[in-house]
Amino acid sequence: MKRFTQKHADLKRLRHVTQVLIKHGFGYLVQQVFAHDHFFSRQLRRWKLVTRVLNPPDPSISLGERLRTVMEELGPTYIKLGQILSTRPDLIPIEICEELGKLQDSVPSIPYEKIVPQFKQAFGKKPEELFTVFHHEPIGAASLAQVHTAVLPDGTEVIVKVQRPGIEEVIGSDIGLLRQIADLTNRHMPGLRAYDLPGVVEQFAKTVAREIDFDVEARSIDTFRKNFKNHPHVYIPRVFHEFSAERILTLEQLHGQKLRTFISTETSIQRKKRIARYGARAVLQQVFIHGFFHADPHPGNVFVLKDDTIGFVDFGMIGRLNPQLRSIVGDMLVGLVDHDIDRLIETYRKLNMINDSIDIHKFKSDMEEFIDQYYEIPVSQIRMDKVLMNALILIRTYDIRVPRELYLMIKTMIIAEGIAHQLDPQFDMIAQTKPFAARMIRQRYHPSAIMNYTKKMTHELFELISIAPKELKQILYMVRKGELKLEFEHYGLENLIHELDRSSNRIAFSLVIASLIVGSSLIMLTRTGPLYLGMPVLGLVGYILAAVMGFGLAWAILRSGKL
């Protein structure tokens, strides 16, 4: 079994995480996950937290609120984890997803002197030597980075995003701790194995690694800029690569109003309707046409520029729909429009979304009921965000495994429609979606797309035909030689093995004690060797050793709580 690292810094962090969990009523989880880990159990006793583990939570605070507070209190890694979990209603209930979506990634800024080394390491210069003007006070600070305004030598006004020093080490340490917690949870809570928590942590580690590498974000911005080149209503800021590095990102500064501010601005209804339409279309184009979309288009990441152009910023969280996923989405849309439940179910099968244990007839019946409730309603009266949320509830009911990218797409669409309705209460998202979905489906059945698909399938077929005889021959040869082996991996036996090992140790210990008692008794009867108070010294020593070992064994059994 993997053990918790005993480095002082990691132990200190582990203690803090444990204290925060217990403080907010999650002591029962601490007990369930770590009860079988001797190292952690010792630490709980050492930290004097054992009696606090079962403290009941405050009933006036919901589970989602308590979890959000824990994430905010534990800092950047856990805030990011919470934000990612908010897009995974397959793992946690939807009401908790919504609560985690409120996570505030806002922290005090760090002094200018502490970010100077980042510039020296990347460029060999201080900010003042690199830029004509560099404002020391940041205009915004988050857990991973803070943002300063500056002016390039050619007079261009820019935004400079600087990573917080030491954040990589903090995140690395936290992810190491999360890996061990996920591993222990997987071992000791069999009911959660279906959620593959170690896999979730690994996916989270990859996501965070991309977010803290500003080169990745710079390339994403370049892709967005290329996709919206010459677009009349969307503008993506330019990246200045010569002033950017892995931990520093320099972008063109957008001059306009943040959408958050614009929503509450006194302006004409027609203008707000126009902005709602432009913003929604920008998101829909990203999702259905480009397959590369901004996965966090909340009002703080969208600007209203001059001529009512929409500007996007903060491209740390990006969603991708590859051609296969876009094709699947097309199948889903066709199935919904045609009321073809069988087609929808077959689409889910293609993505390995349906569990073998599912009651397919009941699922089909519930799908029909779900679609029927919207089928007779005029499209203009249907809220897409409500449809998507109800779909998520159905998905969770049947434990359907949906790819993370599709969840990101759903979350993005829900955010986009929510913002559009704040600007225009009569906004019809489905009407705006139709032309983009139709275009995506047309692209799928375009002759060139069919030709490319045919080429790909032909290539794979010939490849299969070429390797199949050789592979089959190898299998038959191994069968004939008796070398074909089947490997089975058992889950859940680790605890049994551990208990057997502990029981055998106790039995061996008991036999040693019994032997000491019997041997000492025989010596007492024979009265051989040196005497003390008329009794053999060897016999007395044997009795004393047996007593000490016996008390030690009894104490260990009582402390474990298993008589």
Automatic annotation (TrEMBL):
Reading the lineage from the top rank, the first entry is: Bacteria
Q: Which UniProt keywords apply?
A: Kinase, Membrane, Transferase, Transmembrane, Transmembrane helix
Q: Which CDD domains match?
A: ABC1_ADCK3-like (cd05121)
Q: Which GO molecular function terms does the record list?
A: ATP binding; protein kinase activity
Membrane-spanning ranges: 507-525, 537-558
Kindly indicate where the leader peptide sits in this chain.
none
Provide the Protein kinase domain boundaries.
133-449
Family, according to the entry, reads as follows: Belongs to the protein kinase superfamily. ADCK protein kinase family.
- Name recorded for this polypeptide: AarF/ABC1/UbiB kinase family protein
Source organism per UniProt: Candidatus Auribacter fodinae
Q: What are the leading ranks of the lineage?
A: Bacteria, Pseudomonadati, Candidatus Auribacterota, Candidatus Auribacteria, Candidatus Auribacterales
